[in-house]
Every structure is written in C-alpha cells, then in structure tokens.
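Aim 2, interim progress: modelling of the S-adenosyl-L-homocysteine-bound target.
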Amino acid sequence: MTNSNKEKVVLVGAGPGDIGLLTLNGKHWLQKADVVLYDHLVNPDMIRFTQKSTEIIYVGKKEGVASMAQEKINSLLISKAREGKTVVRLKGGDPFVFGRGGEEIQAVQAAGIAFIIVPGVTSVTGVAAYAGIPLTHRDLSSTFSVITGSNEKNQGDIHIDWEKIAARAGTLVFLMGARKLPLIVEKLMSFGKSPDTPIAVVQWGTTARQKTWIGTLGTIVEISAKDKILPPALTIIGEVVNLKPVVEWYEHLPLFGKTVVVTRKGDQAESMIDRLRELGAEPFFFPVIETIAPDDWSPLDNALNNLSQYHGLIFTSVNGVRFFAERLKTIDQDIRELKGLRVFTIGPKTAEAVRDLGIRVDVVPENFVAESLISSIGKENIEGKQFLLPRAAVAREILPEQLREMGAIVDVVSAYQTVLPAPQVDELSKRLEAGSIDVITFTSSSTVKNFLALAGDKLLPAIQKVKIACIGPVTKNTAQEAGLNVEIVPEQYTVSSLLDSIEAFFQPNS
Ligand code: SAH
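Predicted structure of the complex, ligand included:
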C-alpha cells in the first residue's frame, strides 16, 4: 500500500467505557493505526489493540483542567495524516454526540485529507442500558431528548430554552451535567415539571466505577449531597426511571464493581479478560512479559543460510516458531529451505504454530516438557547429527546439554528475547493509589517477579492492600516471599478455576 492510501483520519467512537462496547470497525482501525489520539473518557485499555509501533497521544481533557486546545488537536490530526499516516481519533461514546467530532472533521476536510467515521455506542444509550433504564417504553415514554448540561462558552447559566425543555414530553437525558445538577432540577421545576418526576444520575456508567443515585426532582439534590457527584455522569429524568429495579442487571453481576489486574499475555489473557467481563468485573490488562527481536540476528541468520547442514530443527515455544518464520522471510528465504529436515516440538501449541506454517511436525512428545522431548529424540540415532534450536535468548539449558551428552551437535541460537515492557505503569499507580484496584492475578512466578519489578518498591504498600489471586502453590510461594498476602488460590491450577475462586471469594454464599 502506498503512503497516499494510508493518509487519512479515522474518527472512532470508543463507547462509554466498557471495552466490549467498542465496535468491530473501531477495533479494526485501532489495529491499523499509525497514530492514535485519544481522550479522557476513552477506556485506555483499548490501546492494546494497536501495534507496538503505533504512536499514542493523549489529548484528553478532564473537566475543569486545561486540555490540549481544540485547534492544536485539529492541527495534530492534519500534520500526522500529511506524513502519510493513518490517524485514529478515538473519542468517548459516539463522536457526533457532544463530541466535537463535527468540528474536527470540518478541519480535516478543509485540509483536503480523506476521512472515515466510525460511530460508537453513545453514553446516552449505553449507560442507560447498564443502569437498567429503558429510555422509551410504550406505556411511559414515546420520545427522549438529549440535552447538554454545560455551556463551555459561558460559565454561569446553561444557555438552553428551559421553558421548552421543561414542557417536553418523554424522557430527558442530560450530559455533562454533573456539576450543574442543582441548577438543572431547579430550572425544570420552576418551569413546571413536577417535583415528583423520577430522576437517576449515573456516574462512570458501564465501568467498575458505575454508581447510581435515584430520587425525584424534589429530592435528588439532598440525596446526592453527601457524595459530590463528579463527571462523567449522565442524568435521566422521567417515569422510565421507575423501571430500574426490574430492569437492572449489570450491578448484580457477581464481580460487578471489581477491577481485576490481568498480568499474563497472549491468547489466554484474552479468554481470561472475556470471562472477567462476563462476571461483571472490569479487567485491567497489564501484561508483564513481552517478546522482542534478539540483540543480534547474525547467529540465526548464519543458521538459516546453512539449513541443509542440519538433521533436525527443534522448537520449544510458539515465539521461537514465530520469530524463526519471520526471520526466514526477512532474509528472503522460505519454508522450502526446510526440506529434508526433521522437525521436533515441545507442547501442542508449539506444534500447532509449526503446522500453521504448512510444515509437518515429525515428533511431538507425550508430555509438554523438555525431558519428554529428549526421551523421544533419544530413540533415534542422533550421534554426530546436527540440530538447530532457535529459542529465547535466556532459557533452560537442560535440553541442549542432554542432547549433546547423547552425541548430538546442537546449535542454540537466539530467535527472540523476553523483556519487561513499559505498559501503563502510570495508570496502574494512579488506580492503586486511589484504591480502585481490587484483585491482582498471577499465573506464574515470573509474572509475580516482573509485576513487582515494574511497579517498583514505592507501590508495594498499595499492592499489599489488594487481594492477590495466584494460579497455584508455586506462584503463591513466590508472591508470599515477595511480601504479598495471597488470599485466593484455586484447587485446580487452571485459569478458569482461578476465576471461579475469585468469584467464590466475593460471593461466599452463592
Ligand atoms: N460523545 C460522548 C459524550 C461526550 S460529552 C457520548 O456519545 O457519550 C461527555 C459527557 O458524556 C459526560 O459529561 C457524561 O455526561 C457523558 N458520559 C460519557 N461517558 C459516560 C459514562 N461512562 N458514564 C456516565 N456518563 C458518561
């Protein structure tokens, strides 16, 4: 694809908070983005759908705090696109509902840059659904109005025609009205809405922080007085609010309100995240192990250029297969070079990765450990034969050593290395210090060690206050040795049992 095809701005609605409310199109463009500009109300966890090389720019504004000026955001969108890049502008909810999406597209269009618009689930409908309040109902409301509760251009009053708004039938939904709640209810009542009209204020809807206040126009200010309602909050006014006790569901999910840190990476992290969301928890994805290219490709390149000298190829991990195949391609070779080589793998996932490349696996040992592969290979006459073992820069030595003892020649080459990534440590610190993390899950000793190394000593006291869930006794020991109090360990050492245990921990009687 040429640069000119890539050059565009994609305006994407991220939905109100729950990552599951991002659309398939939204996810697609995040995966393709060269640059992402995102806002305060966007769930930052979505950034994990981008590529490692994607440039991520936070342009968020918190209400009351000076943000990047709109003109600056517009010019950034334009200048990044002009570099031939696909620029995703990720906004909370739907970009065309009080999102200034229109203004940004006007600027982009005026600059002659191509654009695409991906609508999002607006908080109007998304938050209402998670709060259990249908906006329309055949018996109660046949229309709803969406109204701004703020006027950025004028600090005092909200410049809307209160008389007309108060006279409207149906449900009224106010956005951006958290700080102006007393003014909104007073105006509505003074223009004739009954003080008995039901009202709900929903803060941080669709997230673990979702909180709802219910009352009437006459009582809500007093009801919510002790809790200073801060943005983002959505206000729903009308008879439909009375349906909430029947329709509410999200707040009843077993792990509702719990933020659970997921430290593992890869496919199993995704299934863990999905299951947590089903249980009503908000997963906080914080992968602590990352694989990158080795410091030096030349040992692997040498081996790849001399593949015919080998008798067999041994893969011990999916990453080994992946980096091996990618490197083969990079140096302009392909799988035909592997003709005649015996291929050995450890574990079914590794074997699957090899087969995905269209290569037959000769030997997959019965068990998933190195020792088992050695005994399988040992049945063949390997004396004097040469093997290539592409794998992580630092790994266990048992496999090559034992094969050498059996007379084989083993070339161990680095195909990749594992490193500690620098993920959203800031976001983690913020949440830990605010006490808004409930559980941290560990699925191996290395996730414990890497997590604590990333978090640093400063956060240890905050981490010690969080519930710690470990997949099994070995991981638990590591966590305890590091000073953590482990309260959740399943009887079976699997991810799904770990999640069951977390559920049981918080719902002891169910
Ligand atoms: N484009 C967005 C709205 C932007 S204005 C949309 O379609 O949802 C910001 C306002 O949206 C907030 O002040 C609040 O009223 C509302 N809002 C956004 N996310 C919300 C959430 N998770 N919970 C409650 N209100 C939310």
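The chain is about 35% helix and 20% strand. The first strand starts at residue 8 and ends at 13.
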